[in-house]
Recover the amino acids of this structure.
């Protein structure tokens, strides 16, 4: 009996240590932890390189050069200082994607190199882009705004490259102003709106109070929300534009209740892309209602609370490198790199035309830590992918929701299907 008790006690201790060690991975890492993990990662990398040299004597057949292009931004005034201003967004996604590409490339004789280029505030983006194309670069992963991408599309050099968009969610780039060489890793406003609407319909929250910010991006997302509401038979009971100029940190308790008074609705839907007021609506509305949209419950391509389908491994791997959480742009950069790497591996060359054709074929697909393989829509170059619905500190759901069917792919229930698209390839 005593022996049985001792064995049980030891088992509990071992189990407790196991969970404690796993919990450590979910906490913020100290500087010391980061340095130790980077050192361990470097040692493992050297060991893998040694094993690779022993196992494979294949000479490099060709090198695929990839540029991550971004633009320095003026830091806008914000209501909260909780979120850090990132100057390296996208870099570690590119870095990890390059490592993954080399894992296979080293055994096939395919080499990959990348450059991280940030154009300064006073520098001309178009001029720098032309110089890079003249230097022979053909593959670009970009963290640029919609107008910046449109400016590049006017250049003759745009027809000579493949570009993967990781930031702009504008529907117009997937429709009237689409381009055969422009691939969209970032989900469109239409995809994000449909992903959110499907969940709200599932919860039977079909009466909306829509609050729209004054910026162009706010209006674009709000328009996508209205289209989605019409698509899924949702009633927008009220739509109001937020145009207050006072400091909400001091006045929100007075202004928000009055602003939201007098409407019968199930859920408050917010379109505030920059985060100028949305965070101050929750818990202050006249009636107790959930907040969704760009704040509260948000639709996104990636979130720090995502842990399913091996995502925890990616989260921890990224944090060991970057010392921070992975953002949607970081994730988009990784997907862009892996898209290029997978295409090069499968067609066994880095010819631009061959890569483009393979990316839009039914043969292409990569695992992206979302339970399903992601691929590109042939009609508008949009990445079809599951969309995460997340609150600040928890994953709530993943769209498309159960029950939304499609003859080819359930992922095509999000955003513009082929019959709905107005894209005419340039």
């Amino acid at each position: 009996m005593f022996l049985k008790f001792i064995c049980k006690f030891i088992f509990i201790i071992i189990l407790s240590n196991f969970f404690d060690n796993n919990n450590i991975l979910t906490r913020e890492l100290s500087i010391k932890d980061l340095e130790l993990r980077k050192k361990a990662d470097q040692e493992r990398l050297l060991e893998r390189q040694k094993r690779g040299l022993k196992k494979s004597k294949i000479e490099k057949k060709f090198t695929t050069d990839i540029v991550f292009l971004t633009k320095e931004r003026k830091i806008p005034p914000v209501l909260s200082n909780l979120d850090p201003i990132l100057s390296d967004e996208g870099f570690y996604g590119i870095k990890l994607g390059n490592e993954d590409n080399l894992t296979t490339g080293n055994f096939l004789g395919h080499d990959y190199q990348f450059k991280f280029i940030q154009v300064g505030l006073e520098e001309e983006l178009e001029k720098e882009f032309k110089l890079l194309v003249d230097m022979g670069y053909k593959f670009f992963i970009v963290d640029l705004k919609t107008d910046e991408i449109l400016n590049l599309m006017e250049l003759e050099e745009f027809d000579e490259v493949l570009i993967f968009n990781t930031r702009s969610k504008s529907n117009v780039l997937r429709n009237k102003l689409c381009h055969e060489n422009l691939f969209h890793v970032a989900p469109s406003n239409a995809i994000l709106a449909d992903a959110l609407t499907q969940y709200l319909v599932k919860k039977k929250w079909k009466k909306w109070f829509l609050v729209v910010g004054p910026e162009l991006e706010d209006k674009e997302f709000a328009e996508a929300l209205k289209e989605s509401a019409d698509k899924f038979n949702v009633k927008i009971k009220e739509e109001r534009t937020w145009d207050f100029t006072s400091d909400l940190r001091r006045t929100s308790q007075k202004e928000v209740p009055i602003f939201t008074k007098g409407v019968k609705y199930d859920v408050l839907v917010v379109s505030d892309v920059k985060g100028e007021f949305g965070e101050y609506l929750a818990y202050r509305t006249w009636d107790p209602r959930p907040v969704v949209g760009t704040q509260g419950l948000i639709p996104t391509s990636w979130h720090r609370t995502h842990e399913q389908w091996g995502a925890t491994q990616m989260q921890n791997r990224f944090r060991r490198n970057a010392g921070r959480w992975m953002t949607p742009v970081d994730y988009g950069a990784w997907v862009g790199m892996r898209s290029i790497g997978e295409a090069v591996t499968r067609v066994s060359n880095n010819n631009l035309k061959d890569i483009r054709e393979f990316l839009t074929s039914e043969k292409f697909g990569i695992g992206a830590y979302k339970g399903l393989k992601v691929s590109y829509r042939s009609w508008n170059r949009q990445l079809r992918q599951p969309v995460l619905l997340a609150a600040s500190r928890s994953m709530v759901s993943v769209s498309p929701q159960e029950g939304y069917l499609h003859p080819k792919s359930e992922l095509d229930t999000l955003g513009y299907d082929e019959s709905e698209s107005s894209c005419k390839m340039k």
User: Anything to note?
Assistant: Residues 31-55 form the longest helix (25 residues). The CA atoms of residues 205 and 266 lie 5 Å apart. The two ends are 79 Å apart (CA to CA).
